[in-house]
Design goal:
Layout (H helix, E strand, L loop, with lengths): L6 H7 L30 E4 L3 H12 L5 E4 L15 E2 L6 H21 L6 E2 L2 E5 L2 H16 L5 E3 L1 H7 L10 E5 L3 E2 L2 H14 L3 E3 L4 E7 L2 E7 L2 E4 L2 E4 L5 H6 L15 E4 L13 E4 L4 E5 L3 E5 L27
Parallel strand pairs: 1-2, 1-13, 2-9, 5-15
Antiparallel strand pairs: 3-8, 4-8, 5-7, 6-7, 10-11, 11-12, 14-17, 15-16, 16-17
Helix pairs in contact: 2-6, 3-6
GO cellular component, one term: mitochondrial matrix
Organism: Rhinolophus ferrumequinum (Greater horseshoe bat)
InterPro entries: FAD-dep_OxRdtase (IPR006076), FAD/NAD-bd_sf (IPR036188), Rhodanese-like_dom (IPR001763)
């Protein structure tokens, strides 16, 4: 998978610079856990303090919903959110997805001013590679859709690709698309910023509080049972991430949510001998099943064609509720 990088990076891969990565960010959330008892009732309960749950809380509070409780079993952003690549790309095939991605890009850019929390936002741009004509045609279609809705992008030459990313091997490519306003963020810090803004808007956030199951009567949500007591509510939002499937089955009226955890791999180098600029473009090579983004080195992630978790094992596959922070090695 590393033929996409030039030899200077391949040499770095085989040196002492390669290591297992573990998160070092351990700062306390700006939305601290409440020491008081849980409220007896609320309008909305959100389960999950990752980027999905905090985003739902943020946007509901922006729309004027004030009676909201967010529950997180561990610490905010402690699940899969912490290990997201943090790539903000508008290069989608559907216009609605492009508009949503563009909105997210703008939102995350202004969150630092709104909350004072550094989100790691850097406008790097993205380069999408084509190894064959079919891929190039697909990129041209995406490029046209982006231009129609006002998002800058262009099909560029291989010479221009090499200029934008000097470590990239371009000898086998037929073309590429450049989206200059794409960006990268720290996904965990974005979640903390969203939580902070939601808290300022009146959302009550409780960490170290687990949802045991959702109480239902005649098909209507009536509340949630937690490890610290019950909360009556009208609406429940399941943003439990890799635990969403098990939580859905634990409801008084079980719901099968089509989501399961799956083993995934990525690699991170130590800083290169000649460090990359912070705004070095993110590379997406769909044909090679790899992306590369700058993160004090070269972060490479491969979308594996074969996964260790098979769909037929879904009913026996579970993620312990105590699983958070660690990476497999």
């Amino acid at each position: 998978m590393f033929y996409r990088l030039l030899s200077v990076v391949q040499r770095q891969r085989t040196s002492q610079g390669w290591q297992n990565w573990s998160p070092a960010r351990s700062g306390a959330s700006t939305a601290e856990a409440h020491s008081v008892a849980l409220p007896a009732q609320t309008q909305v309960v959100i389960c999950g303090g990752g980027i999905m749950g905090t985003s739902v809380a943020y946007h509901l509070s922006k729309m004027g919903w004030k009676d909201i409780v967010l529950l997180e079993q561990g610490r905010l952003a402690a699940g899969s959110t912490r290990f997201c690549a943090g790539i903000l790309s508008t290069a989608r095939h559907l216009t609605i997805e492009q508009k949503m991605a563009d909105y997210s890009n703008k939102l995350y850019h202004q969150l630092e001013q709104e909350t004072g929390i550094h989100t790691g936002y850097i406008r790097t741009g993205s380069i999408f590679l084509a190894q064959n004509q079919d891929r190039l045609i697909s990129l041209k279609r995406v490029n046209s859709r982006l231009n129609v809705i006002g998002i800058p992008s262009e099909i560029i030459s291989l010479k221009r690709v090499a200029e934008l990313h000097p470590l990239l091997n371009v000898h086998d490519l037929v073309g590429a698309m450049h989206v200059p306003e794409d960006a990268v963020v720290s996904s965990a810090d974005v979640a903390l910023a969203l939580a902070s803004a939601a808290s300022q808007n009146g959302v009550q956030i409780y960490d170290r509080t687990s949802v045991v199951h959702v109480m239902v009567k005649k098909g209507q949500v009536t509340g949630v049972e937690t490890d610290k007591g019950q909360i009556e509510c009208q609406y429940f939002v399941n943003c439990a991430g890799q635990w969403a499937y098990e939580l859905g089955l634990s409801n008084e009226e079980p719901i099968s949510i089509p989501l399961h955890a799956c083993e995934h791999f990525y690699l991170l180098t130590r800083p290169l001998e000649t460090p990359l600029q912070s705004n070095t473009p993110t590379i997406v090579d769909a044909d090679g099943r790899i992306y590369i983004r700058n993160s004090t080195g070269a972060l490479s992630n491969r979308n594996e064609p074969k996964r260790s978790s098979q769909l037929q094992g879904i009913k026996t596959l579970s993620t312990p509720y105590t699983f958070r922070f660690p990476l497999f090695s």
